[in-house]
Amino acid sequence: MSKIWDIHGGIHPAEHKALSLGGPIRTVPLPPTLILPLSQHIGAPAYPVVGVGDKVLKGQLIAAAKGFVSAPVHAPSSGVISAIEEQTVPHVSGMKAPCIVIQTDGNDSWIEHSANPDYRQKTAAELVALIGDAGITGLGGAGFPSAVKLQPRQPINTLIINATECEPYITADDQLIRERAADILIGIDILAHILGRPERILIGIEDNKPEAQQALASALKNSGNTDNAGAIEVVEFPTKYPSGGEKQLIQILTGEELPSGKLPAELGIVCQNIGTTHAIYRAICHGEALISRLTTVTGQACGKPGNFEVLIGTPVAHLLKEAEFDAQRCPKLIMGGPMMGFALPDTSVPIIKSSNCLLATTAEESPPPPPAQACIRCGHCAEVCPASLLPQQLYWHAQSKNYERLEAHHLADCIECGACSYVCPSSIPLVQYYRAAKGEIRLIAEEKRQSDRARARFEHHQARVEQEEKDKAAKREARKLAAEAAKAKREAEAEIAAANPQAALDASPSAGANDSGELDIVQAALARVAAKKASPEDQRKRFERAIETTAARLQKAQQVLAAMASDDSAEQQIKRDQQRASVEQARLRHQEAKNKLAAIETDQAANGPGDIAAKPATTNTASADPGLDRAAAAIARAQKNAAEQASMSPQQKLQKQRDALEKRLGKAQTRLAQAESEGSEQVEAFNHAVATLSEKLKAADLELASGSQDSGPAKVQTHTTEDSN
Amino acid sequence: MALTRNSSPHAHGPRSTQWVMQQVLIATVPGLIVLTSFFGIGTIINILIASITAIGCEAAVLKLRQRPIGFYLRDYSALVTAVLLGLALPPLAPWWLAVTGTAFAIIIAKHLYGGMGFNPFNPAMIGYVVLLISFPLQMSAWLAPSGLVIDGTVAATPGLRDALQIVFAGNAIDGFTAATPLDAFKHNSGLLVENFYQQTPQFNQGRWAGFGWEWVNIAFLLGGCYLLGRKVFTWHAPVGMLGGLTLMALFNYDGGSSASNGSIIFHLLSGATMFGAFFIVTDPVTSATSNRGRLIYGALIGVILFLIRSWGNYPDALAFGVLLMNFAAPFIDYYTPPRTYGHGKSGTIIHRSKED
Question: Which chain B residues have a beta carbon less than 8 Å from that of A327?
Answer without folding.
Answer: 1
